[in-house]
Amino acid sequence: MAAMTRLFRSSSAVFSIRRSLSSAAATEFKPQPSPPRVDPKARNVQWVFLGCPGVGKGTYASRLSVLLGVPHIATGDLVREELNSSGPMSKQLEEIVNQGKLVSDEIIINLLSKRLESGESKGESGFILDGFPRTVRQAEILNDVTDIDLVVNLKLPERVLIDKCLGRRICSQCGKNFNVATIDVKGENGNPDIYMDPLLPPPHCASKLITRSDDTESIVKQRLAVYTEKSQPVEDFYRRQGKLLEFVIPGGIPESLPKLLEALNLDENEEKESATV
Ligand SMILES: [Zn+2]
Predict the structure, then answer these.
(1) Looking at residue 34, what is its pLDDT?
(2) How far apart are CA 68 and CA 237, in angstroms?
(3) Which domains are present in the chain?
């Protein structure tokens, strides 16, 4: 770990980002940080995306990474890639997964460090992390390895998450995913109204829809409870550092993405500019 820490500390990219982070440090201990204005050309962000299962975290993280020109690094993908490779950790990982054990923090950090290091050697800087850190311990290790300047916590009310999961359908013939739920929830306690259209299947799929066996109300609730229990301390960890930005998703991606960009101080022009790059 010490060697790895040195490696990251000595990297010039980390130092240049560290300098530009001084404005973020000033927002410490505010419950809702206002993110520093980001110029994707001058500075690359080091962000973490948190969010419970079903919130669409991967989709938002991936859209933002394209917009900002930083890699979207999902630790689940790193584990899968290593398993499918002949890399030094693939054998060890295979044993762990075959025995049904959890992949340790050390292995995840190791994979993540390798990924950041190889990206940096290819001229990458900045990242959006998805699926990491999951525990306070991981967050502390990450703190030692690199700087995180903002943690975006994507949220939806539990009722919406449950209805979204219960509305999921898969076409048994072509395997495409649909959603038959119409979400229409009035916002309470200052939260926005939430409206999401269903994603209905074309006629040739409509008669072949099936539901995943684990998309029942009790299993979905259990999944959310497990997530909340584990994520709460991680959210608190970043909230104490003034880095947690809470964002309640107000609808489908077309309506929500511009609002998320606004909350992140990124405007439409930057989006268009980067889309043409
Ligand atoms: Zn189909």
Answers:
(1) 62
(2) 25
(3) 2-156+228-272 (3.40.50.300)
